[in-house]
Amino acid sequence: MISVLLADDQTLVRAGFRSILSGEPDMIVSGEADNGERAVALSRDLRPDVVLMDIRMPVLDGLAATRLIGADPDLAAVKVIMLTTYETDENVFAAIRAGASGFLLKDAEPADLIRAVRVVAGGEALLAPSVTRRLIAEVAVRRVPPPAPDLGALTSREAEIADLVAQGLSNEEVAGRLAISHATAKTHVSRILTKLGLRDRAQLVVWAYESGRALPGWLHPR
After folding, report:
1. CB–CB of 54/8 below 8 Å?
2. Which domain holds residue 165?
3. pLDDT at position 215 over 70
4. Mean pLDDT in the chain?
5. Phi/psi of residue 115, each to 5°?
6. Do residues 106 and 192 share a domain?
7. Sites of the modification 4-aspartylphosphate (predicted)?
């Protein structure tokens, strides 16, 4: 079962999410929070697989709450999906840097919400790739990346795979592109995250932009 914590200050919004997720045989809503401070506390108590976190909440906003969750080593297995009303909200980019695994528009279709929770719980890929790409590209175009990325201890194959992940490819798509097995692709991605000290694939995308490894507009990586 995938346990989900709902964090939104609007009761009706939480009720809607609960109704959608509770109808799935592999999901359970383990708790609800009406502010960011409560969301962090419940995350520590309940250890949910996924937190659906609204950006704008009283007491402590979703962005600050996500930072606290992302910085707590005891909550490394807790994944955050940031909820936003506007896909161009730059707070989403900051949230990914803070540890959120992706974001979802609050007016998304129920099927998209369900799929997003499963994807993030499985640690597979970024949410809503088309929207995610537009958002990160819009923010990244305003930044001036350094001339050369720090690849750390990455091998040439790992650097190649990091480029593909930065383009939004899933492990399955990476495997198909490089003619390797899905398990091998997954292992490479895990090693890349460990070597770069990154929490998940979302932060790998941000790293690719900030290091200059990927270009704004989702052109080919350098």
Report:
1. yes
2. 146-210
3. no
4. 81
5. -65, -40
6. no
7. 54
